[in-house]
């Protein structure tokens, strides 16, 4: 970045050259008698003025490339299975084409982004962006579909082609009222917050990167590019100015590292534009250098003052007060003074809409009472004396102090978590680079490298616990319970958090959850009891933690075969979950999924439709149909059909879900379970070779993500053994059973795996022509399943057919 004393030179030269033709501009710039850093900066600003940002995504459907834009591809060219239709954008590093993929099954239109041929040596940045974007699955973020290498060696990625309109233009065209604009803004915050939780900072948020699609939903484009460039050791000088200065935070323009706070600033600028109809910095005739100077040295104007004009979309009086305060807090020059997260910013907007006090304002008594009266104006009119008594009475004061303390603790926790996420961003990329993995490192590898080094370097403070729990949650988001478990156990063994009971309890309840996922039931009760002893002392302060303890106890009851208690605990917890997880879609849907799983295992098939109805309403409301939880709930629909002997319908559901999950999430634990269900359906239909194929794919995925002794891994292996036996490979099937046997024998309590392994042995013996031994094994399996009650009923339904086969052999 040029030094402050050169800004006069930069602005003067930029103003002189901006109106010239491109060729003349370049010639005059090369001959200009100015320092090299000024020449580089002015060239960057000119590029930025001509373009729309780094690798800009698809513009609105009505946009077309101009004749002046160079296109390296022609209509009809083939790139990785896609056919190019036309150029639709050209940015600082890439070209964007409208393309289509046509197969025998479907046709798909995409925005295909291709690294520009004149940007040599930046393949590593492009590849890193593509890998990280593959991890983002949110209804508000344009999805990565495919990627590869073009015939000329340039990398490409295919993204959702969003047929939509930039949010500012959409609001103008639809005369959107304030409520609609704020609702759309909260959707933006939700998508940005999701990306932050997955270690992606956008760094170039602006209205042109936020489209409203035909369904009226927000879709974010170009996610993560600028942050990834900033993480590189060799960032080209030109990339700095490619950021849009109207929405760039002061620290970006000063060349400092981007953090979550950087995106918060941009969100504040976007909210300003949504309510005012114009950005905070770009005034009539303003040049880019003058805009940058204002951003660096001035506070943004009050939105309510800027909207005092006849064509303003929202009256000034509707903005003054809360919205002014919210925007100013988001856009404070000091990153430490902004909102701690996108969720906190969205929450303040929601509080404004609900006529509740917003945290951005000073919170004087007059203001709080005023908001209370506006919110409950009819009740106040009838009972003013009662309200006054509540506000000034000792009980009211004590309650308010208590509430303030809780909010303070919550804010501090959010601050620690925001700081932890920012630190993870820095540490993970540094560790992957220093290890030699470089740009070839996957997110999982970066997590493992960071976790391996972090535990040894941390002290035992509560702040260290925040780093550990943040990292463990990232493992869980990647469906790597084993990775989270190793990290948490190492942290607990080292004594991280030992001086703070609350911090230690945060590790303990998470460790109980990973123990459940990995089948270590005996570890769960002591961990839950220890955490519960801390959290139950203050249910108002720890609502989420107490809910998590209840969920953990339901898991433990399920592991112990007490389905009545497990289902009762979750059913009773659902009203609290709907409230506590109102903005936490993932955890809310996970609870619905768990309740449905318990009902399946308890064979309460008739009770499931009511839960499906509530779960699907939540999925539709949050747009999470294609999320991990959405796919899991859809999978359970197939499981229910399997239990109702509608096997062909179930097979179709499992096949579709496995394809979706493989495409979006790769080789995850969820995919392993999808393939298990698909394999079981095909076994039931007599499609033994097809069943063997999918179960063989599922087993290594389950071992990698869950471990060799986890319950799903064992069931997959035994189902694969059955498929192998049915296709004639009894030796291979026997070897597979032998691998599973020690894990099952080590289980303290007989359960479904004991019955499954006996049933599998019966099939192997039958295929070997040893009918009497097969009959004995089948009777042993039958006896085990009968002892399991409702859980065993589903397994027993297939026994008559197998008995008949043994008798006929």
From TrEMBL:
- List each copy of the Protein kinase domain by range: 82-355
The residues that hold ATP are: 113
**Signal peptide span per the entry?**
none
**Keyword Kinase applies:** yes
Q: Keyword set for this entry?
A: ATP-binding, Kinase, Membrane, Nucleotide-binding, Transferase, Transmembrane, Transmembrane helix
Q: Which PROSITE patterns match?
A: PROTEIN_KINASE_ATP, PROTEIN_KINASE_DOM, PROTEIN_KINASE_ST
The residue ranges crossing the membrane are 376-399
Is the Kinase keyword given for this protein?
Answer: yes
Q: Name one GO molecular function term.
A: kinase activity
Q: Which InterPro entries match?
A: Kinase-like_dom_sf, Prot_kinase_dom, Protein_kinase_ATP_BS, Ser/Thr_kinase_AS, TPR-like_helical_dom_sf
Q: What domain of life is recorded for the organism?
A: Bacteria
- Name recorded for this polypeptide: Serine/threonine-protein kinase
- What is the source species? Sphingomonas colocasiae
């Amino acid at each position: 970045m040029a030094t402050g004393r050169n800004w006069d030179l930069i602005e003067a030269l930029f103003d002189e050259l901006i109106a010239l033709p491109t060729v003349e501009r370049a010639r005059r710039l090369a001959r200009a008698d100015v320092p090299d850093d000024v020449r580089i900066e002015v060239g960057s600003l000119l590029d930025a003025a001509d373009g729309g940002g780094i690798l800009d995504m698809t513009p609105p459907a009505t946009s077309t490339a101009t004749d002046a834009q160079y296109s390296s591809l022609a209509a009809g060219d083939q790139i990785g299975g896609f056919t190019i239709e036309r150029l639709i954008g050209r940015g600082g590093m890439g070209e964007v084409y409208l393309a289509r993929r046509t197969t025998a099954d479907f046709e798909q239109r995409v925005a295909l982004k291709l690294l520009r041929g004149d940007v040599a040596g930046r393949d590593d940045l492009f590849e890193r962006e593509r890998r990280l974007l593959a991890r983002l699955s949110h209804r508000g973020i344009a999805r990565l579909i495919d990627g590869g290498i073009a015939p000329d060696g340039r990398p490409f990625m295919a993204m959702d082609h969003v047929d939509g309109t930039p949010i500012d233009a959409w609001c103008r065209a639809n005369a959107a009222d304030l409520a609609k604009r704020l609702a759309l803004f909260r959707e933006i915050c939700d998508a940005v917050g999701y990306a932050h939780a997955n270690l992606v900072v956008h760094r170039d948020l602006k209205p042109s990167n936020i489209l409203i699609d035909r369904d009226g939903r927000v879709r974010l484009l170009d996610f993560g590019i600028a942050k990834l460039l900033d993480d590189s050791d060799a960032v080209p000088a030109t990339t700095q100015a490619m950021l849009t200065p109207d929405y760039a935070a002061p620290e970006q323009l000063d060349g400092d590292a981007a953090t979550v706070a950087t995106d918060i600033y941009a969100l504040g600028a976007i909210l300003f534009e949504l309510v005012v109809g114009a950005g905070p910095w770009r005034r009539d005739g303003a040049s880019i250098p003058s805009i940058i100077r204002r951003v660096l040295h001035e506070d943004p104007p009050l939105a309510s003052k800027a909207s005092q004009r006849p064509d303003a979309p929202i009256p000034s009086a509707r903005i003054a007060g809360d919205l002014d305060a919210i925007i100013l807090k988001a856009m404070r020059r000091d990153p430490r003074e902004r909102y701690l997260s996108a969720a906190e910013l969205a929450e303040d907007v929601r509080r404004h809409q609900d006529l509740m006090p917003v945290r951005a304002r000073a919170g004087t008594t007059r203001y709080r009472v005023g908001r209370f009266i506006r919110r409950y104006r009819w009740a106040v009119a009838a009972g003013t004396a009662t309200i006054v008594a509540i506000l000034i009475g000792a009980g009211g004061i004590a309650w308010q102090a208590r509430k303030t303390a809780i909010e303070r603790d919550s804010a501090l926790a959010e601050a620690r978590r925001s700081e932890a996420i920012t630190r993870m961003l820095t540490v993970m990329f540094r560790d992957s680079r220093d290890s030699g993995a470089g740009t070839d490192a996957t997110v999982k590898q970066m997590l493992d490298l960071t976790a391996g080094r972090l535990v040894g370097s941390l002290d035992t403070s509560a702040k260290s616990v925040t780093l550990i729990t943040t990292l463990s949650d990232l493992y869980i988001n990647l469906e790597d319970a084993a990775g989270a478990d190793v990290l948490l156990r190492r942290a607990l063994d080292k004594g991280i958090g030992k001086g703070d009971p609350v911090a230690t309890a945060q590790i303990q309840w998470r460790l109980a959850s990973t123990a459940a996922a990995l089948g270590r039931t005996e570890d769960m009760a002591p961990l839950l009891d220890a955490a519960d002893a801390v959290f139950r002392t203050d249910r108002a302060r720890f609502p989420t933690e107490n809910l998590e303890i209840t969920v953990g106890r339901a898991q433990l009851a399920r592991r112990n075969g007490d389905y009545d208690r497990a289902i009762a605990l979750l059913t009773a917890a659902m009203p609290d979950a709907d409230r506590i997880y109102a903005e936490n879609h993932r955890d809310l849907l996970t609870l619905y999924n768990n309740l449905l799983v318990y009902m399946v295992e308890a064979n309460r098939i008739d009770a499931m439709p009511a839960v499906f109805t509530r779960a699907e309403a939540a999925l539709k409301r949050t747009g999470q149909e294609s999320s991990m939880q959405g796919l899991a709930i859809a999978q359970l629909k197939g499981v229910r059909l399997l239990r109702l002997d509608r096997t062909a319908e179930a097979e179709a559901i499992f096949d579709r879900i496995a394809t979706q999950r493989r495409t979006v999430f790769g080789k995850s634990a969820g995919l392993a379970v999808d393939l298990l269900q698909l394999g079981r359906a095909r076994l039931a239909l007599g499609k033994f070779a097809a069943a063997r194929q999918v179960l063989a794919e599922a087993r290594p995925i389950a071992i990698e993500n869950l471990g060799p002794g986890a319950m799903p891994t064992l069931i997959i292996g035994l189902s694969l053994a059955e498929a192998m036996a049915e296709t004639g490979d009894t030796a291979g099937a026997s070897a597979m059973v032998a691998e599973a046997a020690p894990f099952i024998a080590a289980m303290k309590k007989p359960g479904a795996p004991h019955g499954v392994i006996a049933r599998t042995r019966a099939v192997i013996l039958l295929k070997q022509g040893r009918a009497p031994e097969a009959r004995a094994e089948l009777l042993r399996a039958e006896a085990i399943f009968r002892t399991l009650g409702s859980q065993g009923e589903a397994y027993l339904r297939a026994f008559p057919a197998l008995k008949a086969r043994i008798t006929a052999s």
